Amino acid sequence: AKANGKNQVQIFTEALNAEAHYKLFVENNLRRALTQNELEVYYQPKLCLKTGQLTGLEALLRWLHPEKGMINPDQFISVAEETGLIIPIGKWVARQACRVSQELAALGMGEVQVAINLSPKQFTDPDLVGSIAAILDEEQLPPHLLELELTESLLLEGTDDTRQQVARLKALGLTLAMDDFGTGYSSLSYLKKFPIDVIKIDRSFIKDIPENQDDMEITSAVIAMAHNLKLKVVAEGIETAAQLAFLRRHKCDVGQGYLFDRPISSRELIERLRRYPCR
Ligand code: C2E
Ligand code: CA
Ligand code: CA
Ligand code: CA
């Protein structure tokens, strides 16, 4: 940096400018993306670790930008949250997810639960619960087939109003999961207080199995504790056979990860399930 004569402040300012510039790009383009069909929902299979059968899907947003190509959610979700665009986008994702579950049922693949991610910002929408109820109704999907992946911070730091919305979603019959379990300040005792059905162990605990003894201890303890609380456990980010073997040995219920499948488009998903109806 010294070589081209810049000091720390200049470098810092340039980095900030680049970031501001990128944000502006996303902001200006994301609105159009939603109306111009540039957004697409990909689906990643979740498998029962006992039988290997497909039990559900996680809906993951992708942005297919005409010039920039595929943009992953980490690069635009935060801007969508700041601008509030996540609210209409989230409703669109929910509808797509319901349709895919219906489509798989119509193809004779049975009941496949589809999970969508909800960020805390979506709970600032007073119409969140009403719109989800309307989507389920219009798409005629049994509510238990829609799962909501919620963050620890939403449940722990949410306002009374947020907690009420979560309770109403639960009362509609939706399945509620706590996503990225272990990355926040989740004290295990908190789990009892929330109306959740599922916890998803974050990939950061899975990725160093079987090398990291601590991660293995934590993971097996979390599974045992969740089962005592009658919660189902999903492990995310399974990439190796050794990780799978460990999780099966400790009776983890469901797994998701590149070892099985990457997130794929609904078209690819249907093709894939046609070829291997029950793996
Ligand atoms: P997440 O909810 O924790 O989703 C899991 C992420 O891990 C996904 O990244 C998925 O593609 C990735 N993944 C799955 N299996 C593996 C694996 O075996 N190895 C590795 N290295 N990664 C794996 P993705 O699709 O880039 O999504 C990132 C985040 O963006 C999600 O994290 C979620 O927080 C957010 N997101 C995605 N779609 C939506 C959406 O529709 N609404 C909202 N509010 N957030 C979304
Ligand atoms: Ca998730
Ligand atoms: Ca997750
Ligand atoms: Ca995660």
Question: What descriptors fit this protein?
Answer:
279 residues, binds calcium ion, alpha/beta, cyclic-guanylate-specific phosphodiesterase
Care to describe what's here?
It is a single chain. With about 280 residues, this protein is of the alpha/beta class. Helix content is about 45%, strand content about 20%. An eight-stranded mixed barrel has the order 1-2-4-5-6-7-8-9. Helix 4 links the parallel strand 4 and strand 5 (about 145-150). Helix 3 (about 85-105) runs parallel beside helix 4 (about 130-140). The protein is globular and about 60 Å long. The mean pLDDT is about 90. The structure holds ligand C2E and calcium ion (3 copies). Ligand C2E binds near residues 180 and 256.
